[in-house]
Amino acid sequence: MADMNRRVFLHRGTAALIGCSAAASPWLTTVTLAQGAEVLGDQRLVVVILRGAMDGLDVVRPEGDALYRSYRPNLLGEPGLPLDGFFTLHPRLGGLMPLWQAGELAFVHATSTPYRDKRSHFDGQDILEAGTGLDVLQPEVRDGWLNRMLQTVPGLSSETAYAVGRDALPLLHGAAGVRSWIPDQKLAISAQGRRLLEEVYAQDPLFHAAAMQAMDLAQSQAFEAEIHRQVEADIAMQEQDAGMQAEGQMSDAPARTKRESESEDLAAFAAGRLRGNTRIAAFSLSGWDSHRNQAQVIGGSLQALEQLILRLRQDLGDVWSNTTVLAMTEFGRTARENGNKGTDHGTGGAMLMAGGAIRGGKVHGRWPGLDEAALYDRRDLMPTTDVRSWAAWTMRGLYGLDRSVLEQAVFPGLQMGDNPGLLR
Asked: Rounded to an integer, what distance in angstroms lies between the CA atom of residue 350 and that of residue 384?
């Protein structure tokens, strides 16, 4: 317990030491990347955690189910975009329709982690990122499934090279080494100060390593700040090009929100690394908890997600053909709307897949129906698949990991089932 308290203190203290200036933005979050081109080949994997429980029934709408609109008479606004004759896509993801038509976008419906009944964001996210089922709530479970995957690859030198924001990703906690970077870090330490810290922490390897890492990151501040500046300048230029028309005319396009711009920033930052030796990136987008006024809440979040994916595709260039993006959330939301034009915490939900490496143009999963007897607890979409199995089959297709490794080490206790043929 003493060691754990020291580690918690160290994590928080180091974050404060290197200057977490983004803490005022609650939706900003960590971006983590892992290197390993020699071992993992050319395939890239991007995992996006959608924090807050995205309403999959609103994002990928089962309009072919006769009960759908009767459950949500006041919730749905603009009509969805046709996907396959049964499902439609939320109009705020309309910019992704060219990807759907090109076979670079897919969805999984009626999927969930093993988490049931309590519907807590904290527990749900922990279980999603640990990938171990309900036993994640036991104190001895500390690592995340993506970190465990990195540990199973022989000869892989993994490095969480950059962290943008204030929140850590349990998805990548574990024995595989990680590093973090926070934008606008301000750590001015003289050579004398560094020597003093080295002496103070010389007999404490845990604190010594963290202090040295913080100072090393500070020394690279100028290089990283320049990259960040270039990303922001590029985004500003694109906004100017897109928003301006002929002199004297007004643009009827909606103004880009700060959330959209920041999501593009994260995507551009990650894409720059993925074009190099980095092979795996993970970050999260918050803002999906839509208890009231769901149309406004989810609309803004979907636009940010859309911009994130489009920016990845643009900046990755030819690398996009070897890229798979998985966007997943902790649980779904209720089938019926509530009295506040929103939805409450549910169970079954949807996940998004994108990238040139996937076999898109399809909504995967077995649809359970919306009849009250078919709902989970007579209120939620019934899960028909385990969200972990889709991630496992993705990693098997990308990196050739043995099924036994995925079912026993990466996702302990998982039964992957038949190959769904997610990748090209």
From this structure: 11
The CA-atom distances, in angstroms, between 319 and each of 18, 220, 357 are: 33, 27, 10
Q: What gap in Å lies between CA 112 and CA 124, rounded to an integer?
A: 10
Whole-angstrom distance, CA of residue 150 vs CA of residue 145: 9
Q: From 3.40.50, 3.40.720, 2.60.40, 2.40.50, which CATH number describes the 29-191+222-243+254-410 domain?
A: 3.40.720
Q: How confident is the model at residue 114 (pLDDT cuts 50, 70, 90)?
A: very high
The answer to whether the CB of 381 falls within 8 A of the CB of 347 is yes
**What is the C-alpha to C-alpha distance for residues 160 and 143, in angstroms, rounded to an integer?**
14
Token pair in block for residue 419: 């190959």
Distance in angstroms (rounded) separating the CA atoms of residues 124 and 121:
5
Token pair 């906004």 in the structure block, residue = 239
Q: Return d(Cα 128, Cα 348) in angstroms, integer.
A: 13
| Percentage, residues of the chain above pLDDT 70 | 68
φ/ψ (deg, to 5) at 285: -125, 130
Cβ neighbors of 66 (< 8 A, separation 6 or more) are none
What pTM was estimated for this model as a whole?
0.78
Question: Where do the domains of the chain lie?
Answer: 29-191+222-243+254-410
Q: Which pLDDT tens digit goes with each residue over 182-200?
A: 444 445 555 556 566 566 6
- HEC assignment per residue over 141-202: CCCCHHHHHHHHCCCCCCCECCCCCCCCCHHHCCCCCECCCCCCCCCCCCHHHHHHHHHHCC
Instruction: Compute the radius of gyration of the chain from its Cα atoms.
Output: 22
Strand partners for 105: 354
What's the rounded Cα separation, in Å, for the pair 331 and 63?
21
CB neighbour list of residue 226: distance below 8 Å, 6 or more residues apart = none
